[in-house]
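Archive entry. Fields below.
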Amino acid sequence: MAVPQYLSWSSTPITFDRDDHLDKVVAPGVYPLTVDPIIVNA
Amino acid sequence: MDGGSNLNIIYLETLDLLGINRTQLQPSAGGFHGVVPGKKALPLGRIDLPVCFGTAANFIKETLTIEVVGFRGTYHAIIGRPGYAKFMAIPNYTYLKLKMPGPKGVITVSSSYEHAYECDVKCVVYGEALESSTEHVSKLEALAAEAPEPKRHAGSFKPAEGTKKIPLDPNHSDGKALTISADLDPK
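PREDICTED_STRUCTURE:
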């Protein structure tokens, strides 16, 4: 029987709950998910 | 972040910000197709770039292969499904948050509606500017000419054969009638 090769930290559960809820959800699904990058040329 | 894209994309402008020379690009496997069916975009090349999420206390760093495109965009880069998969990142489009497992627990990346709104507005303004450019309009017109003529069915509705008219109210002869199948009992 093959031994599963798990990815690093794949045992960490990821959940979303009310703690993630914003004060107000405006037009859900309309806006893109954006993140602010820090661009570094190391 | 775009889970609907099967490529990671970076714009040439961002590459210039990184101070990366175009000679460092590797050849791409081929073009890719965007929103308009049949239209192909050719990337300038691809590059492997280290991308990091998190803080100094808990972070995850992966090298992503990113396609470099020559046209302008309203974002710095778009991380698509390959990036999501590599980071095991889970997006939540309601809360505008991204979570992924890190060495010391879950890494959460948040956005705000204000920022998302600004990006969206920029995207629309840029899209409208592009639409008004003569070259782009001619391209769209050529595309519309290639599209097959849609078949119009308006006014062609006909009732099935074998129907009969029965009075709406048998006790009143006000002329109102229903059309039903000839096989049905009027009652």
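CURATOR_NOTE: The CA atoms of residues 24 and 42 of chain A lie 39 Å apart.
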